[in-house]
């Protein structure tokens, strides 16, 4: 890439039609890659959960809380600024790359320095070594930001997906191999580091860009002004998404944190496998629509309804069969997490939708408003968790769920006016997927109760047959009460598949 070349979205002949098709194909690529990664994650998690102890997962969770904060600083929002900006010069890209890497290096030193204090906080010396090793993953995160942003900006979702899938596969294989050979917690530590190394090397190769030996802080001041608010919001969001784990680990211990972390991870599956897929495509797509609010609202509402059509039944079904699912997938030693998982199923359904609201702030450039919202949301979420401690792990989950419901609706009231969207219209788009999910809930609940009480079917048969009944019931209900939205999605999918 020459020094004068700008990074811009690739031109389209028919902007409105092609942008929708490109977005849909982006969902296919991102979703397909995410689905493969999910299979890898689920299989490796099940194997690792059987090979390792809950305390190993809890120990990793203690360290990950602090590493995750460092990862936010390693990015400091510059990736989002590159995607949102209408064009970016090569000197800005190179400067952003080196700035990310420098910050990441400083963060590595900082995490290693505070590791002894973190170990003292948890009263577990093992955290010191684990955190010190995981800290080096920040260098990898810093190196990935700019080349990945280039691929996102040019809507090259397929290349991003390939790099992530291969990275996940390599990390999972190494983790399972180490666990089978008795490496314990270090198998969990190796998984993200090895996977990220593969990911960053492939991302750099696919972006066809390499940083030049040039640095001009002045050239990225306009990006930094945008990214500063993104970073602030991300830090506060991270605090309320991970502060609960910090509190659980401190006051309830590593075993409780292991149960909570795995239940939380299961709750996040719809977000990571469906919502995040569409959100990743929505950001660069809606950024190109930011001056056309009518098109923006239509695209946003269709995306939200598409998410609900998939995530609502996933969470409802998991709620009904949670006990059998945990027994089948993870074994009896993980059964204490069932009540927590049942409560978090509601949170998963709620957050699968609410996570899209952040894109409104980013794609319209209203990141300061998003930052102000998180100033309110973070303390509310943490207070909910602290209050719930009185009733143990289940109380923490309940406090988290109540607080999440409150802050979600405040978020709607803050963000929707930016694009002229009424909450009543938003609810109208979600009503039909919700009704179809309620019908599915009734069908699965009565079937699962019957097969558990009236037959001698084993746990595997109960889980598989309940999933099958739920799938059939949901399809029938969707074609009955939500046929229009389903047909719209099908037509857009067909258009994408026909596009050469």
What this model shows, in words?
The chain is mainly α. Helix content is 83%, strand content 1%. The protein contains 19 helices and two strands. Strands 1-2 form a two-stranded antiparallel ribbon. The protein starts with 5 loop residues before the first strand and ends with a helix. It is globular.
- Work out the radius of gyration: 23 Å
Characterize the largest beta sheet: strand count, sense, and whether it forms a barrel: 2 strands, antiparallel
Q: How far is it from the N-terminal to the C-terminal residue, by CA? A: 27 Å
- Tally of helical segments: 19
Principal-axes shape call: globular
Q: Strand order, biggest sheet?
A: 1-2
Helix-strand string: EHHHEHHHHHHHHHHHHHHHH
Identify low-pLDDT runs. 1-6, 8-15
Helical proportion?
A: over 70%
> How many β-strand stretches?
2
Rounded average pLDDT: 82
- Derived structural class: mainly alpha
Task: Based on the model shown, name its key terms.
two-stranded antiparallel sheet; 19 helices; mainly alpha; single chain; disordered N terminus
Sum this structure up briefly.
This protein is an all-alpha fold and 500 residues long. It has 19 helices and two strands.
């Amino acid at each position: 890439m020459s020094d004068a070349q700008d990074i811009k979205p690739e031109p389209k002949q028919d902007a409105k039609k092609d942008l929708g098709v490109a977005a849909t194909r982006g969902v296919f690529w991102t979703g397909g890659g995410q689905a493969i990664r999910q299979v890898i994650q689920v299989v490796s998690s099940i194997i690792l959960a059987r090979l390792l102890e809950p305390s190993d997962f809890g120990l990793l969770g203690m360290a990950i809380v602090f590493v995750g904060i460092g990862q936010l600083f390693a990015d400091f929002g510059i990736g989002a600024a590159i995607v949102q900006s209408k064009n970016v010069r090569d000197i800005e890209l190179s400067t952003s790359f080196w700035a990310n890497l420098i910050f990441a290096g400083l963060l590595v030193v900082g995490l290693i320095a505070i590791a002894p204090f973190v170990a003292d906080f948890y009263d577990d010396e093992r955290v010191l070594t684990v955190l010190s090793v995981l800290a080096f993953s920040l260098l990898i995160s810093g190196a990935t930001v700019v080349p990945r942003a280039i691929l996102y900006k040019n809507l090259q979702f397929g290349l991003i997906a390939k790099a992530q899938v291969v990275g996940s596969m390599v990390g999972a294989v190494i983790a399972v191999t180490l666990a089978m050979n008795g490496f314990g917690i270090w198998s969990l530590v190796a998984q993200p580091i090895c996977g990220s190394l593969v990911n960053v090397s492939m991302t750099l190769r696919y972006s066809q860009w390499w940083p030049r030996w040039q640095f001009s802080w002045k050239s990225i001041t306009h990006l930094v002004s945008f990214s500063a608010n993104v970073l602030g919001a991300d830090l506060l969001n991270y605090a309320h998404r991970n502060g609960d784990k910090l509190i659980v680990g401190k006051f309830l211990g590593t075993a409780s944190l292991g149960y909570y972390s795995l239940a939380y991870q299961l709750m996040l599956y719809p977000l990571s496998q469906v919502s995040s897929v569409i959100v990743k495509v929505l950001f660069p797509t809606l950024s190109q629509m930011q001056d056309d609010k009518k098109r923006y609202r239509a695209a946003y509402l269709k995306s939200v309804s598409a998410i609900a059509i998939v995530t609502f039944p996933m969470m409802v079904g998991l709620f009904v069969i949670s006990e059998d699912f945990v027994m089948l997938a993870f074994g009896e030693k993980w059964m204490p997490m069932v009540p927590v998982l049942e409560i978090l199923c509601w949170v998963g359904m709620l957050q699968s939708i609410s996570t899209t609201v952040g894109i409104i702030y980013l794609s319209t450039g209203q990141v300061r408003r998003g930052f102000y919202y998180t100033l309110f949301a973070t303390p509310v979420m943490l207070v909910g968790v602290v209050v719930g401690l009185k009733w143990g792990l289940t109380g923490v989950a309940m406090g988290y769920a109540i607080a999440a419901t409150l802050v979600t609706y405040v978020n709607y009231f803050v963000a929707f006016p930016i694009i002229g969207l009424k909450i009543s219209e938003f609810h109208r788009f979600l009503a039909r997927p919700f009704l179809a999910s309620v019908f599915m809930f009734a069908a699965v609940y009565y079937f699962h109760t019957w097969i558990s009480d009236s037959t001698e079917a084993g746990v595997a048969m109960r889980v598989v047959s309940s999933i099958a009944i739920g799938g059939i019931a949901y399809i029938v209900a969707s074609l009955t009460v939500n046929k229009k939205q389903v047909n719209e999605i099908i037509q857009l999918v067909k258009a994408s598949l026909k596009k050469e």
